[in-house]
C-alpha cells in the first residue's frame, strides 16, 4: 500500500511498539488517529480515542469514531496486548483476561474496521506473536491467546481479499519493551532472551505494509525476520 496520506488508526498507541509504529508511520506521511487505554500523545490535531479492551463494544465504536474523524480508513494497526507467565497464569480469570485483550478485542477492532477498509481497499495489521508459531512452556495461556488471534487473521485473510482488503499478521519474538514486567500474572521464565529490537521490528512492519505482505515472522534459529 501507499503509506503517504493513508488514513490510519493505531490502537495501543500508549504501548512501546504501538507508539514506535505510530511515530514511524507519521514519518511516512500517514494521516493518524491514535487510541489507547489512556490518551496517547498525539501531534498537531491528530484525533485521540480512549477505550478499555475489556469493553468490546467500545473497541468497535472507536473504529467508527476514528473513521469519521479521518474521513475514512485505509489502515488499522492493532498493538494492544498483555502477558502472563507460569502457574499464576493458568487460572480461568487470567486466561479470560488474556483471551479478551489479546484475541477478542483485536477481533472486535478488526470486524468494525472491515466495512471501512472494504470501502477504501485498505489493510488490517495486527501484532500477534511468535508464540502463535511456537507455543512456549510457562506461557501456555498467553500462547493460546496469540494463536487465537493469528488463526483469526489467517482465516479472515482469504475471505476479505475478494473485497480488496489485505491482512497483515506480525508475529515478533521477545523484544525488551517492558511488556513482561507488566504481566497480569507471574514472572517471565528464566532464559528468555530478546530476539529483536523495536526499530528492527518497526522497519519490518513498514516494509511489509508497503509491499502488501501477509506475515512478518521470526526464525529463531537464523535470528532473522521473514516477510510472507
Ligand atoms: N514485547 C514483546 O516481546 C512482544 C513480542 C511479541 C508480541 N508482542 C505484542 O506486541 C504488542 C505490543 O506490546 P508491547 O511490547 O509494545 O507492550 P506494551 O508497551 O505493554 O504495550 C501494550 C499495549 O496494550 C495496551 N493494553 C493492555 N491492556 C489493555 C486494556 N485492558 N485496554 C486497553 N489497552 C490495553 C497497553 O495500554 P497501557 O499503556 O494503558 O498499559 C499498551 O498500549 C502486544 O500485543 C504484545 O503481545 C510483544
Automatic annotation (TrEMBL):
InterPro entries: NAD(P)-bd_dom_sf (IPR036291), Sc_DH/Rdtase_CS (IPR020904), SDR_fam (IPR002347)
Presence of the UniProt keyword Oxidoreductase in the record: yes
Gene3D superfamilies with a match to the protein in the record: NAD(P)-binding Rossmann-like Domain
Domain of life the protein comes from: Bacteria
Annotated SUPFAM superfamilies: NAD(P)-binding Rossmann-fold domains
This protein's record includes keyword Membrane: no
Keywords recorded for this protein, A-Z: Oxidoreductase
Similarity comment: Belongs to the short-chain dehydrogenases/reductases (SDR) family.
Protein name: SDR family NAD(P)-dependent oxidoreductase
